Fold ABC transporter ATP-binding protein.
Amino acid sequence: MHLLETRGLTHTYRGDVRALEGVNFVAGRKSRIAIIGPNGAGKSTLFKHFNGILKPTSGEVLIRGEPITNENVREVRKFVGIVFQNPDDQIFSPTVEQDIAFGPINLGLDEATVAHRVEEALRLLGIEGLRERVPHHLSGGEKKRVAIAGILAMEPQVLVLDEPTAGLDPQGVADLVRFVNRLPEEYGMTVIFSTHHLDLVAEMADYVYVMDKGRVVGSGTVGEVFARPELLARTRLDVPPIPKLIRSLQENDVAIDMAYTYEDAKKAFLEAYARRR
């Protein structure tokens, strides 16, 4: 039984705009899954089905084997937490501390439990110093961390991040990558995210879905997807610089192992250099 699954998921907006068509998707426990594709591919619409914000036109969304219904949607939203691309869409309380506490309070938790969850979320995101700040006076990166903290305080099993690195500076991106990569092993969470920065996919994902025009047009491990440049080109994407460079070297008879991350590429180059000496 999958943690989260869609079967033949289709969604049509008013005006007969088909945003999703026959999407089949699965996520297991402690997974790191990237969903990539051009603007308008349907990624955000898909995410809004994961916890019942949108209802399918046809098909279904299953959480631990059970379809989302009006009766269980409240429980589903405890289980699947979504952080939207623009943090201003979900930050509205007078202070950071109150904003993070909003979700746990609405779950009906007692005061001590709410306080504990808020402290843990502040600590995890490294924003203890922001607790009394007004959220809308924060930087974009700080707002992003507050939005994530607010969802984490609800202790979901699935964390969905829509373009999580949008608006972050390089240090903010690096901090987010390190944080996200801790969640599956340390906290047992499944992380699903979308991004236009394909160089981050190898850093943050174990499995990749490629979407275009509301459909899943390809899927596989990072290596399997990046080994299909024609698929990426067809969806107006490109192979990231590191595997593209190594593939070019291999095609020019340089004996070097494929790599997708900076650290793996560094190791591959050093080993290739050692072999040539």
In short: The two ends are 52 Å apart (CA to CA). Residues 127 and 142 are 8 Å apart (CA to CA). Strands lie at 4-13, 17-27, 32-36, 58-63, 66-67, 80-83, 158-162, 190-194, 207-212, 215-221. The first strand starts at residue 4 and ends at 13.
